[in-house]
Structures are given as C-alpha cells and as structure tokens.
Amino acid sequence: MTQEINTQAVADVLLAIREKSPLVHNITNYVVMNNTANALLAVGASPIMAHAQEEVREMVQISSSLVINIGTLSPAWIQAMEIAVDQAKKTKTPWVLDPVGYGASALRNQTVADLYKVCPPTILRGNASEIMGIAAQAGAIKGVDSTAASHEALEAARLLVNVWNNTISISGAVDQVASAGRFTQIHNGSALMTQVTGMGCTATAINGACLGVCDDTHLAAVSAMALMGVCGNMAAEKAQGPGSFQMYFLDALYQISPDDLEQRLKLEHHAL
C-alpha cells in the first residue's frame, strides 16, 4: 500500500516496531553481528542471527523479514543465503540485500547474481559504488567503501527499479531511496558514521525492522534511513569521537521519539 511519506509516517513506523517487535532474521557478516543485533534490540525489534543451512528455512518461516549481508562469505554461508531467500519467496517474506563490497571480487558479484536468480530483494541497500556496479554502470570499487557519491547512483537506481520493480536505498552524505515513481532524499546523519565499521550494515538491519511492520517498501526504506540519520545527528552532539559515537548512537536508537523526528528529520521528495 502506498502512502504519503512524511515525518508522521516515519514516526508511525517507529511506533509499530516498538509495539510489534518484529523478528528480523539476519544472515550477516561476523564483523558486525553484535552491533546489528544490539541496534535492532535498541530500536524495538527482535534479532535472530542464524546461518546454518539446516535451520534457515524454519527461521524465515517465523520471521517478519529477512536480511542478507554478503560482507564475509564462505560456501556454506552462500548456500544458506540461497536457501533462506528461496524460503522467503515461498512464504512471501520481505527481504533486504546488502551487497557489501560488490565489485571487489568475482565471488561477491556471483553471489549477488545467484541470489537475484532465486528472488530479487524487496529492498536493495548499498553505497553508490555497489548500486552502480549491480546496475552494470561505471563505478570504481575500493575495498568495501564507496568511491562514488550517492547522487551518482541515481541513474543506476532508476534502471534497477525499472527492471525489478523493487526499492533501492543508497547510503551517502545524503541518503536516497528510489522506487517506482518515487524518489526521496534524507538530509540527516553525521560524518562520524563513516568512522565506525558496520554502520551501513546497521542501516540494512534497520531496513529489515521497518520492512517487518510496513507494507509500503518505499516508506520502510525511508523510515530506516531517517532513523539512522536522525540518531546519527543525536549521537554526534554528544560524542567525542568514533568510540563514544557508537555508544551514543545505540542510546539514540533506544530513546528516539516522534518529537525528535519532527524537530530534526529533513526529507525531500522528487519524481523518479
């Protein structure tokens, strides 16, 4: 269902997460498991980190959403991801893909291609270079960090939306969300977020939480990036550096209120 995207709509998604505590099944990288699980708990969701092939179908069946993050790959994990996505297709469970480091290796590129063959993600969330790479556009990859600005990936996002009719969320100094006929920019966040490993992975997990309570995938993606951005603003006002920023960011996710969103959230809408 499509609805107007505004501060109140984002606040409603936040309150729904806290009321329903959606179960978010994560097959994510082991660098960030603790961070993303704590972030989901802080915002009000219920995380589960399960990657054994023998149990992922059962986990998807009981979950509100599925999050796949390819940051640390192995053959067994890749197979588990494919099984989980296949189950999500069968149960119509919405899922989020984070193509961490797409373009850095043939294994990462093939993993994303294989997951798409099983079932395209409901939301694809990545940095500009990852999104541009998936859309087969020119985009340099350096390690797992973005070397392109988020606005450079807009044409790539438009192409992906036209092909797959899903929602594309692009992280950057200005976060951008694109879906059929809709394009939203979120002008929040802090430069300190780039100094803490796994903040993009956290954003992907929060997308999973929002998707678990919201049928409008564009609103879900915007809400996730809005929560990340506003909490980044709140944390940066207290932090002395990256270490304390992590602590204050987690507290902000726990404390953020509709009033905080009303006072701080900066959204801008365009036709795609």
Automatic annotation (TrEMBL):
Pathway: Cofactor biosynthesis; thiamine diphosphate biosynthesis; 4-methyl-5-(2-phosphoethyl)-thiazole from 5-(2-hydroxyethyl)-4-methylthiazole: step 1/1. The keyword Acyltransferase does not apply. GO terms for biological process: thiamine biosynthetic process; thiamine diphosphate biosynthetic process. Keywords: ATP-binding, Kinase, Magnesium, Metal-binding, Nucleotide-binding, Thiamine biosynthesis, Transferase. Substrate binds at M49, G198. The keyword Flavoprotein does not apply. Belongs to the Thz kinase family. This is Hydroxyethylthiazole kinase. The gene is thiM.
